[in-house]
């Protein structure tokens, strides 16, 4: 692969006799999207038209198809990368986007996280252990109740407390009323614990509204925010990352789908590429169906070495409990943020104690006392 | 269904013995996303927690599950509607979002297209017949070549000429250079033909960049634009529709297949709800696999009567030919825009003549001379 080409890797269901023709169709659909015979410009034929780099049989009627595409058609535009990788081909149901392979200069142009794993650790002074997080729920609570909940979480020593991803700008808890109230509550708790717990407000709406929300949150002293890139558009994530280099952005997987873009690619590799400092995903053994293998590859994509991209924090979540902390940390290691939601909320009036048990379990594991 | 609830309709694969429990799980996941037993606020239990409205067996291990959700959690936020309808549930692979049912006041709050079918007809003076369109391809061409192509298309009498959806803001054809060149070329052709052909530039990047692009295009006298809502985020579509009431927006379906949302819902109902004036989709019998039934439902969702929403223009596309015009118009009727791309480009130096044959075939059909 030269520096002028990148590669989209598909898994395609096909009869063996038809796969070569199918691969060529994908190469054309994802590049010029017109009959190649009607193109007379030699530069377009050479530089822009997609090429079938390889076709490999995986067994069971499944093939891996690698298509070489032009760097010039994407440059450093996140939406355009998804468009050229899987845009129209997503409308065919025999094919899944499995991976992308990008030359170094293209990765550098995207730039990845401004803070990433190291920055997310530094914010809360958590070295040598996993990070901890929880979520403010249920939606429907007003600013005062959310603030009270956040304070009780923070008193338990969490690193990060995020809005539930369902909390947007609703009349019962509008951003402009909720964020100052919760930020103040967390500041009170931080004064009491001495631990610099961060509150992450959830950004919503168009990116113009999101910029206004970030401005308000920064004015409240906040430096970490939650965004759902598949709702906002990946271009909105990229726009925020570039406009607010001091802010760390945690990506939520909502609407990320299960079947058509490999989760290790979307949540592990692409969200990092587009600048997410941390990426939440459904952990194995919880209430979602991801396998251990998927979770391992996802975390590796988020944290793996790159000459141009900071590591992003993998954030397994979804039906996790304090009891599972040792198992999960044995699996992922400490370069991870553990996000517990419902299982802490079930403690009701003992939320602070349940939260403290969670944060202490993570801290103990970091000290080698792994199953204490 | 009261005015305080809307309904998300899912198709779920399940064993019969497990479907009731599965439905309840979806209702919780798509609303409060926490153990209901840990919620002590009666208003949240009554107003916010999702309800299983019905479960119906469709046969073959497939069930239709209707979940009632709170209007207050969504209000008029497009991203939030997708979030609450299918956000985390999209991460499960046993379920597809099949439909949404919205109370009238919620539809009115969203507002739908500013122009819609009637406005798209009025722009080009096309009454009593279908609309016609084509696309500027291949990407990789510079502004001069794209402008030359647009002029030749316009001389053939097209109503709308759009940028290929792969054309973004690339160095070889940046928006600021391409759009004035193409707009000028189409103006020249319009002076020659007397037909008010419209050129639709493709918007790309974050919505902040898109606003700048719209401003530039409006300054060039353009009033119709192309947007890909699944790349930009549906909130970006909504933001543009609200900020630019004089501009009509045509939605492109790219990346829309990755979401496991029924196409008649996403491209027919939701894009209209969020304000798209026209919605492109892969036609049956072309190079995509949509059935006639899907296309018929999609068109009905785009144009069906609503007290609050203008009809949007359904735009079947993808591997269509002039020869198929009578068949396609017999199927859809005239409330449709036909988009031909590659089959016109294949005419090469005779593009204007091939385009004229296409536009005349559509016009003839409108006069009742349906198979002439």
Structure class of chain A: alpha/beta
Total strand count of chain A, please? 12
**N-to-C span of chain A:** 49 Å
Radius of gyration of chain A, in angstroms, nearest whole number = 22 Å
- Proportion of strand residues of chain A: 15-25%
The overall average pLDDT of chain A, rounded, is 92
What series of H and E elements makes up the topology of chain A?
Answer: EHHEEHEHHEHEHEHEHHEHEHEHEHH
In CATH, the homologous superfamily of the largest domain in chain A goes by the name: Ribulose bisphosphate carboxylase, large subunit, C-terminal domain
- The number of distinct structural domains of chain A comes to 2
Indicate the CATH class of the largest domain in chain A: Alpha Beta
Q: Which second-level CATH architecture of the largest domain in chain A applies? A: Alpha-Beta Barrel
Number of helical segments of chain A?
15
The CATH topology of the largest domain in chain A turns out to be TIM Barrel
State the low-pLDDT regions of chain A, or none: none
Helix content of chain A: 40-55%
The best one-word shape of chain A is elongated
Across the major sheet of chain A, the strand order is 2-3-1-4
The profile of the biggest β sheet of chain A is: 4 strands, antiparallel
User: Biggest interface, and residues per chain?
Assistant: A-B, 86 and 83 residues
Oligomer: homodimer
């Amino acid at each position: 692969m030269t520096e002028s080409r990148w590669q989209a890797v598909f898994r395609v269901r096909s009869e063996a006799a038809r796969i070569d023709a199918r691969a060529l169709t994908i190469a054309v659909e994802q590049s010029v999207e017109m009959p190649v015979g009607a193109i007379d410009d030699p530069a377009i034929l050479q530089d822009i038209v997609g090429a079938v780099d390889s076709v490999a049989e995986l067994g069971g009627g499944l093939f891996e198809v690698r298509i070489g595409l032009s760097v010039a058609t994407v440059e450093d535009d996140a939406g355009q990368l998804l468009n050229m990788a899987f845009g129209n081909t997503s409308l065919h149901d025999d094919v899944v986007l499995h991976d992308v392979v990008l030359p170094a200069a293209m990765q550098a142009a995207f730039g990845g996280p401004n803070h990433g794993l190291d920055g997310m650790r530094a914010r809360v002074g958590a070295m040598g252990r996993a990070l901890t997080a929880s979520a403010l729920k249920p939606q429907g609570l007003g600013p005062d109740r959310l603030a009270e909940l956040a304070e009780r979480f923070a008193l338990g020593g969490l690193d990060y407390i995020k809005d539930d991803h369902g909390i947007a700008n609703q009349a019962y808890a509008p951003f402009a009323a909720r964020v100052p109230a919760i930020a103040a509550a967390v500041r009170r708790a931080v004064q009491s614990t001495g631990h610099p717990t961060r509150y992450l407000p959830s950004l919503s709406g168009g990116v113009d509204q999101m910029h206004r929300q970030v401005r308000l949150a920064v004015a409240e002293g906040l430096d970490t925010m939650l965004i759902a890139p598949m709702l906002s558009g990946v271009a909105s994530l990229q726009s925020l990352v570039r406009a607010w280099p001091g802010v760390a952005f945690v990506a939520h997987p909502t609407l990320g789908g299960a079947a058509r873009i490999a989760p290790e690619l979307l949540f592990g590799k692409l969200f990092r590429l587009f600048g997410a400092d941390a990426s939440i995903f459904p952990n194995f053994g919880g209430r979602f169906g991801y396998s251990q293998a998927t979770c391992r590859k996802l975390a590796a994509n988020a944290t793996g070495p790159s000459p141009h991209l900071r590591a992003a924090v993998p954030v397994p979540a979804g039906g996790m409990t304090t009891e599972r902390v040792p198992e999960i940390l044995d699996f992922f290691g400490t370069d991870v943020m553990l996000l517990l939601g419902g299982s802490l909320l079930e403690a009701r009036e003992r939320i602070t104690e349940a939260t403290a048990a969670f944060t202490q379990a993570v801290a103990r594991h970091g000290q080698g006392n792994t199953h204490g």
